[in-house]
Amino acid sequence: SLKKHFDIPNKIPLFPSNQSVKAVDGISFDVYKGETLGIVGESGCGKSTVARMISQIISPSDGDIKFNKQNIVELHRNELKQLRKSIQMVFQDPYSTLNPRKKIGELIEEPLVVHKIGTKKERKEKVEELLETVGINKRFYDRYPHEFSGGQRQRINIARALALNPDIIVCDEPVSALDVSIQAQVLNLLRSLQQEFNLTYIFISHDLNVVRYICDRIAVMYLGKIVEIGTYEEIYETPKHPYTKALLASIPKESPFDDIDRIPLKGNIPSPINPPSGCSFHERCPFAIEQCTKDIPELLSNEGNNHLAACHVVNNKEENK
Ligand code: SF4
Ligand code: MG
């Protein structure tokens, strides 16, 4: 089970010293080859931290991350370099991740140069091919990022992520900065690339409405923990956890998920420095019982399948039947 606690430096006077933020607190999940696993939650729930741990940008404080049976947390530098080819990342903001002084062709070539792949001529051919793959004319090789729209820049980022033939792409809010009409185009591109290159995606988003276009399974996170995980159908058609239901309630009315019981989300997310006792959702939950303030609910199924929820009320109810 994976943990990431950030120590708060004493220099920040807002907090007493020696406290840590439990950004991710004991989570565990599997990702299957060729699937898209969505990780959804409000900002600050720890989903980006999970993304950065999987991509080895940061290391967990505790726990294992296994990829093809290897624990990537324990890899040595050379092995890690190989692994970095297999796991690539696409970030939210296509503006900040592309160096404005470099031509887009050079930006896509960069990972190939870093990993010493191919001759100059071979790399140029590969970059041209990647540009066409993501729907950008290869004649634009010498242009600069500012000459492209937000959606095109995200395509350039995706081409860069594809350069090393990865197995997994971790997408952290890849369409959140884009207009809704452009979002659909980029999501469609990601879907067709997945089929073409047999990619596995871990798709991080705050938006259950975006995730439904692309994910096979979905994990819902709240305050550093997974509170529900299930298939697309299970999460959207028969959600169990009150927090998932509340998130679904924020999807616009005309959506096809209009007939689920909608519960409103009240109050704000509590501080991850001092999370509430018991179920960390209890202060915001309309169904909370006394047990919820004391015991941390385990992530389990009341049906004996892989649709898991961490909620006392959900899991007790079935037991008493
Ligand atoms: Fe609500 Fe209790 Fe379930 Fe937490 S455990 S979601 S507080 S009912
Ligand atoms: Mg984030």
UniProtKB/TrEMBL annotation:
The UniProt record lists the keyword Aminoacyl-tRNA synthetase: no
Domain ABC transporter: 1-248
SUPFAM superfamilies named among the record's database cross-references: P-loop containing nucleoside triphosphate hydrolases (SSF52540)
Molecular function in Gene Ontology: ATP binding
Keywords: ATP-binding, Nucleotide-binding, Transport
Claim: Cytoplasm is one of the keywords in the record: no
Name the UniProt record assigns to this protein: ABC transporter ATP-binding protein
